[in-house]
Amino acid sequence: MRQLALRSTFARGFRAPSAAENGVGGLAAFSTAEDPLRCNPGVETACDPAAIAVITSPNPALEPERSRSLNFGIIWDPLPRTSISVDFWQIKRKNEINQN
User: Fold this and answer.
1) How does DSSP assign 26-39, residue by residue?
2) Domain range annotation of the chain
3) Would you call 77 exposed, middle or buried from its count of C-beta atoms within 10 A (0-12, 13-18, 19+)?
4) How big, in percent rounded to 5, are the helix, strand and coil portions of the chain?
5) How far apart are CA 63 and CA 97, in angstroms?
6) Which pTM value belongs to this model?
7) Using the 8-state DSSP alphabet, how is residue 80 labeled?
8) What gap in Å lies between CA 82 and CA 93, rounded to an integer?
9) Of 3.30.1490, 1.20.120, 3.30.1300, 3.40.50, which CATH number belongs to 1-16+64-100?
10) Residue 36, φ and ψ in degrees, nearest 5
11) Mind listing the pLDDT tens digit for each residue in 61-72?
12) From the CA atom positions of the chain, what is the Rg in Å?
């Protein structure tokens, strides 16, 4: 049928840990954060975001992240300049590297 199209994809993903995540040194950085409990109407400086130190310790036992994704769909063009599509997708991740 000319008005009907099917599509699908399958993919695998891979991400190796960075040197800061599984090396020997770690990572030290600065970020900003707001503290809404300290923010009072009369003290405006307490409402401004403040710099905080972030220290990440490496984990030499980290394994690479892996993922699999699946996508399939149907496109139907019943009339000129009109299309209807339905898609299904699924992503599964293993060994996801998160900040603790």
Assistant:
1) -EEEEEEE--TTT-
2) 1-16+64-100, 17-62
3) middle
4) 10, 55, 35
5) 9
6) 0.57
7) T
8) 36
9) 3.30.1300
10) -70, -20
11) 888 999 999 999
12) 24
Residue 8 burial (CB count, 10 A): 10
| Number of other residues whose CB lies within 10 A of the CB of residue 20 | 14
In angstroms, the CA 57 to CA 47 distance is 30
Q: Using alpha carbons, select from 31, 30, 33 the residue that is nearest to residue 49.
A: 33
pLDDT, one tens digit per residue, over 11-46 is: 999 999 888 788 877 778 888 887 777 777 667 676
Give 46's contacts (C-beta < 8 A, 6+ positions apart): 35, 38, 39, 40
If one counts every other C-beta atom within 10 angstroms of the C-beta of residue 37, the result is: 7
Alpha-carbon distance of 5 to 74, in angstroms, equals: 6
- Locate 85 and state its tokens: 């599509």
In angstroms, the CA 55 to CA 58 distance is 10
Which amino acid is residue 4, in one-letter code?
L
At residue 47, the 3 state secondary structure works out as helix
